[in-house]
Amino acid sequence: VREIVALLYPDLASEGCLEWLSAMAAALLEARAALSFSTMARFLADPQWRKAILDRAPEAALRWRPYEGQSITPEELDPQLGQLLRERLAALDIKPPGEAESASPGLDPPPKGED
For the chain, which terminal residue's Cβ has fewer other Cβ atoms within 10 angstroms, N or C? Predict the structure, then answer.
């Protein structure tokens, strides 16, 4: 993830942005959830969904413990991360979490026990 973002979006690839992208990717992949800009945005914005992901990703969960139970704006973590997510969601014509009328299909974590 780091290398792809650094290659495609060099102006936004600050060390902080890359670190937080890596932390989100690790959690999503460990939980066997889809890895996309929309799932990353939902991971930050939806504390219940993030908890469901982190319940399936115990190794990645420690990094996110300070944010437990709260919505996170990407800018809180890194300004370039916020800009990257906003730009990518807009380019894909996806409303950021909280603005969509309902949750996007296919973004729910897989049921426990299914691999």
Answer: C
Q: What does the alpha-carbon distance between residue 106 and residue 115 come to, in Å, rounded to a whole number?
A: 16
The b/e string for 19-35 (b: 16+ C-beta within 10 A; e otherwise) is ebbebbbbbbebbebbe
Q: Which position has the token pair 């115990």?
A: 58
pLDDT at residue 115 in the model? 47
- Considering Cα of 57, then 40, then 33, then 29, what sign does the dihedral take? negative
* pLDDT < 70 positions in the chain: 98-115
Q: Read out DSSP for the chain?
A: -HHHHHHH-TTT--HHHHHHHHHHHHHHHHTT---SHHHHHHHHH-HHHHHHHHHT-HHHHHHHGGGTTS---HHHH-HHHHHHHHHHHHHTT-PPTTTSSSPPTT-SPPPTT--
Distance between CA atoms of residues 112 and 72, nearest Å: 25
Structure tokens at 57: 């990703």
